[in-house]
From TrEMBL:
Residues passing through the membrane, by range: 7-28, 40-60, 72-91, 97-118, 130-153, 159-180, 211-236, 242-264, 276-298, 304-328, 340-361, 367-387
Protein name: Bcr/CflA family efflux transporter
Major facilitator superfamily (MFS) profile domain mapped to chain residues: 3-390
Molecular function terms, GO-annotated: xenobiotic transmembrane transporter activity
Localisation per UniProt entry: Cell inner membrane; Cell membrane
């Protein structure tokens, strides 16, 4: 049994990337008003954050494999801290967008470290269990972070949410020295780091069919998450005129479903294969999307209409851990680079899809159900072609 990093620390690392928008998401309409700007520009603080978050993993993955997890993570957290100061002292929406872009670049390293650490487990089912435990901890973020964020920005202003982010980055930076373990497959390299060498690794990794199927399933399911994230605050607060606190409660209930789904997935994988679980999860996603579409046609936009998002999230949390586990099956020393490829594609494509659909869904909410249904069908179709390693 390898000397692995504790689940709780990996979970906090991965949740940290979610906290960077969950904490301040309830304040997004207020931030838009504060800077006297448009909703479209306000949404860029989310969509561009995720776009850069996704692309930057192609940088952090090879750096982690070369320099090790600990030093690379600490450097990224220092960059994040400085970017967060930029958010706090932003004078206009353009400055905030730039600072958020730098935040996205820096914080994605924590996510790569967390999920690539699951590759320390050689068995695919054990690896999926680790990913589920990490995801359960991550799911606490959308339960409590919006509630905390709504209270903080209501009492102290939206800048206070970024102060909390800065403090969390300092905690993770210091604790990494004592808690984060290096991969058992990693050895300090005597050669200089060259991105040219990394390109050869990318070519090797991308030659595996199972990786591509996994990437497309994860990307389609994550697109569902991103579409909901980018549009939820505007639909609930602006269109339906609910308070930021009500939005935070609704988002918290959604996060609870992610925890339930990951726990169910752990139990289901004790009895059924990983591909079976992926197939089941994708069918749940289709069911939730179809129910939402029916509700939209019956009564239009309402909180009741958005309830099927819970079913979709249940399906996503059952589908993603085994998909991620199988996608990493062929990699040991390149685990961080493989993780970076998966996350880069899913984040980039999902951010583009959410960015395009976000501004449309605000004015035509029924498109939310249609887009979620399409992504869910893609997951189900591809789940028919993924198999465990022989």
């Amino acid at each position: 049994m390898p000397n692995t990093t504790p689940f709780w620390y990996l979970g906090i690392l991965s949740a940290f990337s979610l906290l960077t928008f969950d904490l301040y998401q309830p304040a997004l309409p207020t931030i838009t008003t504060y800077f006297n700007t448009t909703q479209a520009l306000g949404q860029l603080t989310l969509s561009l954050f995720f776009l850069i978050f996704g692309l930057s993993q192609l940088v952090w993955g090879p750096l982690i494999d070369h320099f090790g997890r600990r030093h690379t993570l600490q450097a990224s957290l220092l960059i994040f801290f400085l970017a967060t100061l930029g958010c706090i002292f932003s004078k206009n929406i353009e400055m905030l967008i730039i600072a958020r872009i730098v935040q996205g670049f820096a914080v994605c390293c924590a996510n790569v470290v967390a999920f690539s650490s699951s590759r320390d487990q050689d068995d695919s089912t054990d690896r999926a269990r680790v990913i589920s435990y990490i995801s359960m901890i991550v799911s606490v973020s959308p339960i409590f972070a919006p509630l905390i964020g709504s209270v903080i920005f209501t009492q102290y202003g939206w800048q206070a949410t970024f102060v909390l982010m800065a403090l969390l980055s300092v905690f993770l930076l210091i604790s990494a020295k004592f808690t984060l373990k290096e991969s058992p497959h990693w050895q300090p390299s005597q050669e200089s780091f060259l991105f040219r060498t990394s390109l050869a690794s990318y070519k090797k990794i991308l030659s595996h069919r199972r990786l591509w199927i996994g990437i497309f399933i994860i990307t389609a399911s994550y697109s569902c998450v991103m579409i909901v994230i980018v549009t939820a605050s505007y639909l609930i607060i602006e269109n339906l005129n609910y308070s930021p606190f009500t939005f935070a409660v609704a988002f918290g209930i959604n996060g609870s479903m992610l925890i339930v789904g990951n726990y169910m997935g752990i139990k289901l994988r004790e009895k059924k294969s990983l591909p079976w679980n992926i197939h089941l999860g994708s069918l749940l996603m289709i069911s939730g999307s179809f129910i939402m579409l029916i509700l939209f046609n019956i009564e239009g936009l309402s909180l009741i209409t958005l309830v099927p998002v819970l079913i979709i999230c249940l399906g996503i949390s059952i589908t993603n851990p085994p998909t991620f586990s199988l996608a990493l099956s062929d990699y040991h020393q390149e685990a961080a680079t493989a993780t970076a490829i998966i996350n880069t594609i899913r984040m980039t494509v999902a951010a583009i899809i959410a960015g395009i659909l976000g501004s449309v869904i605000i004015y035509r909410p029924q498109i939310l159900a249609i887009s979620l249904l399409i992504c869910s069908i893609v997951c189900w179709f591809l789940s028919l072609f993924i198999f465990e390693k022989n």
